[in-house]
Amino acid sequence: MITIDSLTKAYDTTTVVDHVSLQLPDAGVTSLIGPNGAGKSTLLSMVSRILGADAGSVSVEGLDVFHAPSKDVAKKLSILRQDAHTTARITVQELVEFGRYPHSRGRLTPECRAAVAEALQYCDLVELADRPIHQLSGGQRQRAYVAMVLAQDTRYVLLDEPLNNLDMVHATGLMQLLRRLADEKGKSIVLVLHDVNYASVYSDRIIAMRHGAVVHDGPPETVITEHALGEVYDMEFSVHTLNGDRIAAYFR
Amino acid sequence: MPTPESKPLELHFDEAAETTQRTPVTASAGRMLTRRQLLVFAGLGVLLIGAIALFLTWDVNGHWDFALPRRTEQIVALTIVGIAIAASTVVFHTLTANRILTPSIMGFDALYVLVATALVFLLGSATVAQINPLVMFALNTVLMMGAATALYRWILGDGQRGLYTLILVGVVAGTFFSSLTNFMFRTMDPNEFDSLMSTLFASFNAIDTTLLWIGGALLLVGVVAIFRLAPQLDVLSLGRERAITLGLDYHRTVTWLLLVVALLVSVSTALVGPITFLGLLVANLAYQLTRTHRHVINLATAALVAVVALIAGQAILEHVLDHNGTLGSIINVVGGLYFIGLLLKEARS
Question: Which neighbouring-strand residues pair with A160?
């Protein structure tokens, strides 16, 4: 369980995240949705201690993320952010091996090698293992980073807009992969999504934010509704049920 | 003009080269050296031995008992300087997540000279002359390390400032330090200025042997620290956010690394004065040669390249150019051109 207690972040006079208190479950897929500037990414950055908070606290299974030793937190929680540029010349295999750093501090144990091999397998990267990451396509690179997070083997996996820059083939592939991680490995996946329909189809729970606060929180049936979405995004939606999934249309 | 086709072509070539070179390494033995890296080490080793042999034996004219000890001392000094500059630059590149900065461009050595000058300026050369040169060096180094770490810790901030802010602040800070130093030079008593100059820049031709030993010892401390921090450096090369995610204590690691960089810059500046571009040159050559992110390999390669370049450069300076010029000026001409080339390449990509 990740417990977020009145977490706050402000830049100058703008409060981006305003006293948010939440509990994130220890399994399943949880999506964060909301318009640009709602504070979703900022919230996720603070939960993963990349960004310091102005007030409030976050604890992962009783571990205070801001004050506990960073290496202990790294065994429980990992985050994948939008592809930040790395100048390092590095292959897929080497990248995934970095995921073992919290466990091995740079010296791979047999257990680490097994985890790396499994992560590569799981993300369908075995053939690409020796390729430098700067030669990969966007979708392949995203998969490589997911494999790295997988090798880190944390219960909680946070992803900040993982579908950015992916076409629908790769986006759907990635969502299926994340769903499998939650179902087969019992991980808790928390992700920021811009596409409410991906959130609707793949999530167990959807948290909708607006102006730095949580405005709706529940299973897709209660959040993907014309009323709730209209409130979150301030525009008109029509929600349809297709093959059992709730799909929101907002194109007109 | 670069054609649009030139980029993919180059990538394709890269890929082909890398797959053939990686073949001797099995996937499970990622810690081994690739054949390419073994070749690089072997080649640089041969060059190093050649450069040393050339340097020791060129134009001795039978005065072996005079030439050998003096030249050996020079080689030791050049080696210390080369390793210090190469290691500090590679570490600095990882800290700033870019490869066109060096501690010198960011004003580290200007800060060292400023601290040394300020000490003479404030205490007076008479007092300074009474102080043991080792104590003086130690005092200077400690002050410089404190100031540099505090200042650059602040400039690097929490990693959210862009590269250009970093360069701008660094270049302005460097110029500011040099101007302050110049100001003190000008207001100083000429005798004090003279004694300061002689203590400040021990040249390769008149090496202070006591300083050489302490410099060597400090270099050893710095190098051991860096090699112990090599796994952390590898993780840092993924960027600040990923390093934190992987459980690196970012603030502590960066502070330690900055302290080591300041120490190494002190050592090299005390021995030969500022050599702005050497680090940039050797570090980037090393990256091109090794093609890896692993710091142990890049550090060793950069150090080898630096030592070879310094020894060969000094030999050419003494025997071909007949001492007309300094090693520093040759390095700055070659390095400056390379720096411009890198900037242009960076701007294009």
Answer: A192
Q: What is the interface pTM, i.e. ipTM, of the complex?
A: 0.85
Predicted TM-score (pTM) of the model is 0.82
CATH number for B246:
1.10.3470.10
Of residues A86, A101, A129, nearest to B237 (C-beta) = A86
Instruction: Give yes or no for B203 touching A (CB within 8 A).
Output: no
Tens of pLDDT, residue by residue, chain B (349 residues): 444 433 333 333 333 333 333 333 333 344 567 788 888 888 889 998 888 888 888 877 777 777 788 888 888 888 998 999 999 999 988 888 878 778 877 778 888 888 888 888 888 777 777 777 777 778 888 888 888 778 777 776 665 666 667 678 778 888 898 899 889 888 888 877 777 776 665 556 666 677 888 889 999 999 999 999 998 998 888 888 888 888 888 888 888 888 898 899 888 888 877 776 788 889 988 988 888 888 888 999 999 999 998 888 888 888 777 766 777 777 778 888 888 887 787 777 6
The answer to whether residue B7 is domain-embedded is: no
Sketch the domain layout of chain A as residue ranges.
2-76+154-249, 86-152
- Any chain A CB within 8 A of the CB of B253? no
Count of structural domains within chain B: 1
DSSP per-residue codes, B15-78: HHHHHHHHTTS-TT-TTSPPHHHHHHHHHHHHHHHHHHHHHHHTT-TT-HHHHHHHHHHHHHHH
Closest residue of chain B to A80, computed from CA coordinates: B242
A and B: number of Cβ contacts within 8 A: 93
A29, β-bridge pairs: A189
Q: What CATH code is assigned to A2-76+154-249?
A: 3.40.50.300
Q: Which residues of A touch B233 (CB under 8 A)?
A: none
